[in-house]
Amino acid sequence: MDLGNLGIFKLMSRKMDWLTQRQEVISQNIANANTPEYKSRDLKSFSFRDALSDNRRLTPAATDPSHLAGTRGPGGLAKEQKVRDPYETAPDGNNVVLEEQMMRMGQNAMDYQTITNLYKKQVTMIKSSIRSGG
User: How does pLDDT run across 13-23, given as a tens digit for each residue?
Assistant: First the structure.
């Protein structure tokens, strides 16, 4: 049984992938905290509503060479965005605030742990129902 094909597991996997990508972006922000003119970045926030509607979209198929390509842009749910309103910018143009990045990193870690625990709980429930025969 492939759990990746079940809806809830697919959504949790996508959230975990998003959290992993966000961790990379936060790490890049921290690594460039002293780089002149570096602007901090973050990912577009993940929402299960968007993820559900994204799963239901059909990809256009060109059945004729004269058909135009679809309008979906690259990047999907995890598009990188520049932070819009930094409240602190250094004289060299860098707007990375280490305290803010550390808070994001902590929140990201807690969210990842929460999704991991939900994943484990779902697997336990499936195992329990298989053992009980119902």
Answer: 889 999 999 99
| Burial of 30 from C-beta contacts in 10 A (0-12 / 13-18 / 19+) | middle
How many Å apart are CA 55 and CA 51, to the nearest integer?
6
Give every CB contact of residue 109 below 8 A, 6+ residues apart in sequence: 23
- CB proximity list for 17: less than 8 A, separation 6 or greater: 78
Supply the Cα-derived Rg of the chain in whole angstroms: 20
Q: Angle formed by the axes of helices 7-31 and 48-56, to 10°?
A: 120
Q: Which residues contact residue 25 at a Cβ distance below 8 angstroms, ignoring those fewer than 6 apart?
A: 41, 42, 43, 80
